[in-house]
Amino acid sequence: MRGRLLTGGYLLLFFAYLFGPLVIMIGTAFNSAGFPRLSPWECFTTNWFGRLLADDRLLTGLGNSLLIGLGVVIVSTPIGLAAALMLSQVGAKLRATLYTIFIAPILVPGVVIGLSTLIFWDRVGGALDAGYDTLFYDGFFLTILGQVTFISAYSMLVFLSRLQRFDPTLTEAALDMGATPTQAFVKILLPFVAPAIGSAAVLAFLASMENYNTTVFTVVSESTFTTVLASKVRYGIDPSISAIAVIIVGLTLMAALTYEAAQQRTALAGRIAGNPVLRRLMHPAPVGLLLVVLAGVAVWGGSRVDSSACEAQVLEEKRALQEQYRTAPTPSSPAPDTPAAPRDGGAAPASPFSPGNLAPGGDGGEAPSPAAPASPFAPGNLAPGGGEESEAPASPFAPGNLAPGSD
Amino acid sequence: MTKEVGLSHVTVEFGDYTAVDDAHLTIAGGEFFSFLGPSGCGKTTILRCISGFQEPSYGKLLIGGRDMRGIGPNKRPTALIFQNLALFPLMSVAENIAFPLEVRGVGKKERRRRADELLELIALPGQGDKRVDALSGGQKQRVAIARALAVEPDILLLDEPLSALDLKLRQHMRTELRAIQKQVGLTFIYITHDQGEALTMSDRVAVMSRGKIQQVADPATVYNAPATGFVASFVGENNMFEGRIAAPAGPDGTAEVDLGLGARVRVQAAPGLGAGEAVQVFVRPEALEPGGTAPNRLTARLEKVEFEGAMRHLLLRAADGTALRVSQVNTGGDAGPGPDAPVELGFAPAQAIALPPSELARAG
User: Can you tell me the ipTM of this complex?
Assistant: First the structure.
């Protein structure tokens, strides 16, 4: 009993550790607060998604990342397959050596790969007297090459584990049956390796999409999704970053569920073969379609959420709060955010009680409205050194007059 | 249609290791020929030479009189049935069988027709659309044979294809293989370590040990007149006695031998064995008879009786410690001698053979 409790507690902690940050980030994507945070919760909003879609830099980066990812898949999959085939055919001694060489790029830090790729091709370009508009200085070309060096090793590992289960006598049998080596490869080995080609391609694509260390050097003047994100983080973030997270998590979930449906279908192949309804239902296509429809509904519903009323209310509440600080009878300690207040209400305040009015040194000589000092006891009146720039007050009762040290 | 296979002084070396040592024999067209030997004796290497997966280091391999050097496995008139069958798991039964036709560019309709024909031949009609996994061991076996036959080979090579089957099925498939061979009339070259398979199916058997061919003969000769000590001890059970020639073989082909355990017996021997030469004498367990009137006599003490249904085996020990084995047909009722009883055994000179000593012969 106690053991089970411990196990349960451990599992809970483990999952909290794994998914806690994700859950919080997803939550912040829907909070209208200007900084990604859950508390205080302000308004449920989908505006950050809109903000995201309007971000040209990010979209360009995303497009570039997709292009680079595609290039990496196309180049690294055949290289990985070729390496794995070679490893599975050489002797044990040579295999150990080659294996070490092939996976070395995984062990080299990405920064080193990025820098060396950049420098190497710069030297090559320099030796050939190539201009800066040539391939040797092209961010796409360099990034694809740089990423392929280690991503093809990932692909190789995927293929290798598949090939270890391949029975080489199948190839021999095909040859013996009169197939040419090419036919044996295309008709026997390739169909066997096909599932691994899919996994290797997905792995390569994802590895390329999320790579930063290498990319940040090789991308030169272009930008990718990760480099744009990184610069966003550096120059101040807003919850549109959380919105990206929500989209990525959503897409991942959809892909994973569809894949799982396909897996389950294979596992249950025997049982559902005779049942046409179940067979269609279990097909990954309708599952995927359903998920896409659900996602579409979520997007449509999200686009109709109008949080402006709520946001206006929140703004109002904030003002009221500030006012509360202002009017609180604590002359010795003025509300800390008073100096910022006037920026909020550049125009004439709607209420004579709004704190802006009473702020000392109110923006560049804007004369306080005659009614302003409704109470001569307002803390602003007594503030020392206020209203230095203000012209002669229109009313002798204006607060500036009473302030000591005002000229 | 059928072609003879000639091995002309074929030697295969892997580094320092000699897998096949000077194999020299001819397999006639239409023959069911077996290579019999323990694992590691080089029989599979010979098969790989014939099928083209291995080039001989020395010597020539001829199929239908044509030297096969440099001709790949896909260009030879052979089809190999692998030990693990090597059926293509991602293809249906019919696709497997039609694979040799597919790679030769035969059209889809014709392929299907031919596959159905072959399914008929192996008694699996209408099962072409099944997955290979859905078949039983014996059915897979037959599909592998059908696929090999689809190649329309002149020579069918079989690499211990029955070893994965259970006993009953194995015995059934022996008969079936032989029947298929008679039906299609091809040269079958069969590799096995199972002497039962080799003896029941083959026209001729080559017994191999450590890369060397020990004897090539029909099954009865291999059993009754082994050429070497290895053949005598490997094929069937045999009792072995160390001894020395006392009187060389006369015109009747028998010589007198002094056995180490103290008896003088008259056995068959090659005329080349002179007086005083060390020999090994082999006597089949079923040739030894307790009591009886045979001229060669031995005395031993009974240690144990093994009962095996149709047969009964007496395990005895001679005075010098040599273990002896006597097999009797179980006639029922007769309890036989009790344990520790001294038993007098007799055997006829025609049922024993003296051979030059061989370290490969295993006693008992």
Answer: 0.76
